[in-house]
Structure formats: structure tokens, C-alpha cells
Inverse folding.
């Protein structure tokens, strides 16, 4: 099967042409791990912000409900 035999070489050529001089970075696992860890930290920070905001809205909702109950609406 000629296509199967040529596939690794074709993929390599496509990667080389797509990334030209930066082909080393494509397979750099250390760099990838660092990038993923950084993304994870940013996501965790954003999650904490969203949770705080959610808690504020929950508090406001409770306050509004308690005022409605007080005034019988």
C-alpha cells in the first residue's frame, strides 16, 4: 500500500513546512507541559472568580427573597 508507506514522510514534510524553523517546539513535551500547567493555573484562578461572583449573586437573591417575604409580595 503505497499511501501507507509514504504517510510518515508526508506528515513530516507537512509539519516541517507548517512550522519551518520551529519544528523542535512541536514535539517539545517540556514546553507543552509548562503551557498546560500555566493554562490550568489561569483556569483555576478564573474558577475562583466565578465562584465568588456566584456567591455574591446568591446572597443578593436571598436578600431580595427575604425582603419580598417581609413585605408579603
Amino acid at each position: 500500500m503505497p499511501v501507507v508507506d509514504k504517510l510518515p514522510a508526508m506528515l513530516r514534510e507537512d509539519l516541517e513546512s507548517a512550522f519551518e524553523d520551529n519544528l523542535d517546539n512541536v514535539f517539545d513535551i517540556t514546553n507543552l507541559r509548562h503551557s498546560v500547567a500555566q493554562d490550568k493555573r489561569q483556569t483555576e484562578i478564573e474558577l475562583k472568580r466565578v465562584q465568588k461572583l456566584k456567591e455574591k449573586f446568591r446572597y443578593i437573591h436571598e436578600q431580595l427573597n427575604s425582603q419580598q417575604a417581609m413585605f408579603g409580595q
In short: Residues 52 and 58 are 10 Å apart (CA to CA). The first helix runs from residue 2 to 19. The helical segments are 2-19, 23-26, 29-71. The chain has a mean pLDDT of 86.
